[in-house]
Specification:
The chain has 2 domains: about 130 residues, Thiol Ester Dehydrase, Chain A, CATH 3.10.129; about 90 residues, Thiol Ester Dehydrase, Chain A, CATH 3.10.129.10. It contains 5 helices and 11 strands, in the order βααβββββαβααββββ. The longest helix has 18 residues.
Length: about 250
């Protein structure tokens, strides 16, 4: 294992779980984003660095596979590893382990390095590369698939962006798009199926007060289901695309 990683133990709280006392995907994503930030703080390129240099890492893509959901009361270890930087992109991997060292979750993410003054991507700075020991590594982009376009809309639902949805960067927090995507599904979907993999592409910011629309197309295959999601802003522009694979629950 590359010792450029960072890890933190967590104990699953009841309020972070959903049906069957399993960790919510949004709670898991919050863990991932926190350990990434904590590593940045440890390397002295965290929030103070962002503010001083008017830069920030913005999430672009997620690919998260759940091998086995952590459950209420379980102690887990969350690990992150910055694997490469290329141009204005950075790539991180994440894992969740149980107390016996078994892998519960694995994930890959892509981030864009952004100038906060004009909200445009910029090349990753040398001091950022040095902090993550990437200065002598060849630039390497990880191949992360895009999301298929919706062919039809089976379900849709509208939401207003609330103040509670806004993060420190004054735009909608990343996990809210997942909430909106899941909320547009039929109620029995998450009662009969367990999330197995989620892929996300963030395409555009949304801000407080906007009306957004969450659209869903359902697809079937091999006894499983796949839901494709599109989040539109109030101008009808695509802000986020998601693909979720679902595994049916085993009979009780």
């Amino acid at each position: 294992m590359d010792h450029n990683y960072f890890e933190k133990e967590y104990s699953i709280h009841y309020y972070e779980t959903g049906r069957r006392q399993e960790l919510k995907i949004t709670s898991l994503m919050n863990y991932f984003e926190e350990v990434a930030l904590l590593q940045s703080e440890e390397r002295k390129v965290g929030l103070d660095y962002y503010q001083k240099n008017q830069v920030v890492w913005m999430l672009h893509k997620w690919d998260i596979t759940i091998h086995k959901f952590p459950v209420f009361g379980q102690r887990i270890l969350v690990r992150t590893l910055p694997v490469s930087m290329a141009g204005f992109m950075g790539y991180r991997r994440f894992w969740v382990f149980d107390s016996a060292g078994n892998t519960l979750v694995s994930a890959t993410s892509a981030w864009i390095f952004v100038n906060t003054r004009n909200k445009r991507p910029i090349r990753v700075t040398d001091d950022m590369k040095q902090a993550y020991r990437n200065e002598d590594r060849p630039e390497n982009k990880l191949d992360m698939a895009d999301i298929p376009a919706l062919q039809k809309t089976d379900f849709s639902r509208g939401f207003y962006v609330r103040q509670a949805d806004i993060d420190i960067n004054r735009h909608v927090n990343n996990v809210r798009y997942v909430d909106w995507a899941l909320e547009a599904l039929p109620p029995d979907m998450q009662q009969e199926y367990r999330l197995e993999n989620i892929r996300i592409v963030f395409k555009r910011e949304t801000t407080y007060g906007q009306m957004i629309e969450s659209q869903v197309e359902m697809r079937d295959g091999d006894g499983k289901k796949c839901s494709l999601h599109k989040i539109l802003d109030e101008q009808g522009r695509e802000a986020c695309a998601l693909s979720i694979k679902w595994q049916p629950f085993e009979p009780a």
